[in-house]
Write a structure and sequence with these properties.
Length: 248
C-alpha cells in the first residue's frame, strides 16, 4: 500500500480525521482512566508527536502517537516505570506543565485501521515515529509494548511470554518482533501498565459476558484475566506491557 505519512503539527486540519479513524482496540482498553484523561491531549498539546498515514484516496489508515518526557534528569526517575503506559503519560504531561526539558520519547500507540491491517503499516508508522524523534534531536525512543498475541495466553506470566523467542532469535510475539527488527531490545516488563476498574454492568456491556461469579475471568482481547468481585459489584483489569528501547 502506497501511503503518505504526515505530522499533525504540519496539517492541523486533519485532526478530526485522525481522531475518528476506525480501530480494533477491545472496548474495555479505551476505558483506562489515565488514558482517557491524557491521550486526547497529545493531539491538542503535542501535535508534532502525532503522525498519520493516508492511502491513495486521502483516507487516514494509520496513526502513531508518542510523547517526550524526562527519564534521566527528573527527580525520582531513571528507570522506566512499572506503571508503563499510564506512568509515562503522567510523566510526560507533568513535565510539559512544569517546563521540564525532555530527554526521551515514548511511543504511546501505533494504530492501523481494520481495513488496512496486514500490509506492514505498523512497521511503517513505527519507523516514522523513530525518524520523527531523531529529527527532533532525541537519541532514544522507548515503548511500553502491548504484545499482540498475548491475549491468546492470558494466564502465561508476562515475564515468561516476553522472553520467548523463535529459532532465529527474534521474539515469539509478532508486535515485539516488529520492534526487535527495528533495532529495539527488551528492557523490562511493566506489570501494571494500564488499569481498568469498573462496575459489573460496565463490564457486561463492554464484553457481553455475565460477570456473575467471583474470580478470574478470561475476556477476549485481554492480556491477563479480569478479576471479578461479583458480591462487591466491580471487576478490575490490570494489563502488563513490555518496555522496549530503541536507540536512534
Amino acid at each position: 500500500m502506497e501511503c503518505k505519512v504526515s505530522r499533525l503539527a504540519d496539517r492541523p486540519g486533519m485532526e478530526r480525521a485522525v481522531r475518528e479513524m476506525a480501530d480494533s482496540w477491545p472496548r474495555f482498553v479505551v476505558e483506562d482512566l489515565v488514558g482517557n484523561a491524557h491521550f486526547p491531549r497529545i493531539a491538542a498539546e503535542l501535535p508534532e508527536y502525532v503522525l498519520f498515514a493516508e492511502d491513495e484516496r486521502g483516507e487516514v489508515v494509520a496513526t502513531a502517537h508518542s510523547v517526550p518526557f524526562s527519564l534521566a534528569a527528573a527527580e525520582g526517575r531513571g528507570a522506566l516505570p512499572a506503571r508503563g503506559w499510564d506512568g509515562v503519560l503522567v510523566w510526560a504531561f507533568s513535565d510539559l506543565r512544569h517546563g521540564v526539558r525532555p530527554d526521551t520519547v515514548s511511543a504511546i500507540s501505533v494504530t492501523v485501521a481494520p481495513g488496512a491491517q496486514g500490509r506492514g503499516l505498523s512497521g511503517v508508522m513505527l519507523s516514522a515515529m523513530r525518524d520523527n524523534a531523531r529529527a527532533r534531536g532525541f537519541r532514544e525512543v522507548v515503548a511500553p509494548v502491548r504484545p499482540s498475541a498475548k491475549h491468546l495466553e492470558p494466564h502465561t506470566p508476562i515475564e515468561e511470554y516476553a522472553r520467548r523467542v523463535r529459532p532465529d532469535g527474534l521474539p515469539h510475539d509478532p508486535w515485539l518482533r516488529v520492534h526487535a527488527r527495528a533495532g529495539a531490545t527488551i528492557e523490562s516488563v511493566a506489570p501494571v501498565s494500564m488499569t481498568v476498574s469498573a462496575s459489573l454492568d460496565d463490564w457486561r456491556r463492554w464484553t457481553g459476558l455475565p460477570f456473575d461469579t467471583d474470580g478470574d475471568i478470561e475476556v477476549p482481547g485481554a492480556l491477563a484475566p479480569v478479576r471479578c468481585e461479583a458480591e462487591r459489584g466491580y471487576a478490575v483489569y490490570v494489563e502488563p506491557n513490555v518496555w522496549m528501547r530503541h536507540p536512534l
